[in-house]
Structures are given as C-alpha cells and as structure tokens.
Amino acid sequence: MVKGGYATNYKGAGNNDGAGSGGGQTAVKFLSNDLWHRVIVAGAGGGSDDEYTSGTKNDGSGGSGGDFTAQGYWINGILNSDRLANSTFGFTFGSGESAQKDGSKNSKGVQSGSGYSDRPGAGSGWFGGFAGHNGDGGSGGGSSWALSKNAIIPQGNITATDSFYNLNDSRPYSFSLDDGYLFSDVKTYPGIWEGNGRLVITILDSIIYPSCVSINCSHFSYFLLFILFFETHS
C-alpha cells in the first residue's frame, strides 16, 4: 500500500489546530512489487480540515477517491476541481501530495500556501491527488484504475516521486492490453468507505470445463468469476 500525503501544522507543537492526512491506495500487482506492475488500484480520499464550521458552510472537506477520476477538495465550502487525479494525470504516479509550507513543488500544483495550520494531505491512488495547501481547505483524492480493455495507459516513462515530490524512479508501465491480464466488469464506487482505498474481490462461482480429452487423458482448467469493487471515503 502507498500511504497518502501527510498533513502539516506550522503554528507549533502547543497549538490545537489539526488536519487529516490523505488515505492510502490499495493495489493488486502481478510479477513484481512496484508501482509499474499494478493491475488494479483502489484510490483513497484526501484529508480534510473541518475544525471550523459556520451554519451550512463546510470549512474544508477532502475529495473522495475511488473513481477513475477522483474528486477535488473544498476551501471554505467551495469545491475546487482544478486538479483532478485520473488515468494519466495527478500529483505523481502513486503517491498523494503532502502539505508543505510554501506550496507544491509540482508545477501543476498549488504554488502558494495559505494559512499556517490545518493543511491536510492528499489521497494516493493510480495517480495521487493534489494537496490544497490551505489552512481552511481539504486536499484531493487519488484515482482508481484497472487493467481492462478500456484502460487508458500512460505512454512512455511514467515518473513516480514521493509525497514531497522527491524523485523515486521513472519507467514505462509493465503491461499492455495484449498481455492477457485484462479484467472485465470493473465497478467503482467512490466515497463510501472510511479510511484507505478498499478493493473487494467476490468469488461468484467456479467453472470447470475440459481443455483436453482423449482416450488416455483428461485435463481440466479452472476459472474463477469475480467482481471487483473499489470503495473509498475521504
């Protein structure tokens, strides 16, 4: 599991203000344990700052993860959808962004921070979400993804950094739509699970059929039918 981005508080240890870190993505990987061998990813929600609420005004909820395009975040009750993690775009491949004092190190992120406390971290996913870097706002969720016939696979090298945008590695995705690992009937349900991105595999039944039959041998292949559910909550 890749953890979500960290929350920060720059007012000092004695201050009671606080904000939530982003949730961690859950993934299934084939052949190797790295980001470029993920075949199913359940993205997680972004952290929130809800210390202050006035009437129906939401101070700063984090965006839901769990869909192929994740949700943005709220600042003083207003939804910001400028930077949404999806199949080819986000803070970085895998990690959600950690809140930082002077804004994002990613040129596509929020370049100037606001408020010295209650800055939440973003959710991780196929691509992680962006942090809002705002003391009165939340951070974005991470996107979900599955290697299916309709999957959008980023071309060329895909760069992965840590949650503070320090370079980890850059390489192409390890599979293609012709490799025989495709999943079908994948459903995403964003924003209904609290905590990290949740991936549910339900076995419906097994199918047994002969793959080789002759006078002297009888071989059988076993296939499992399953449904995948992505459940996440900010």
Automatic annotation (TrEMBL):
UniProt GO MF annotations: ATP binding; transmembrane receptor protein tyrosine kinase activity
Protein name: receptor protein-tyrosine kinase
Keywords for the protein's UniProt record, in alphabetical order: ATP-binding, Cell membrane, Disulfide bond, Glycoprotein, Kinase, Membrane, Nucleotide-binding, Receptor, Signal, Transferase, Transmembrane, Transmembrane helix, Tyrosine-protein kinase
Organism (species): Trichomonas vaginalis (strain ATCC PRA-98 / G3)
Lyase listed as a keyword: no
InterPro entries: ALK/LTK-like_GRD
Domain ALK/LTK-like glycine-rich, chain residue ranges per copy: 6-204
Membrane topology classification: Single-pass type I membrane protein
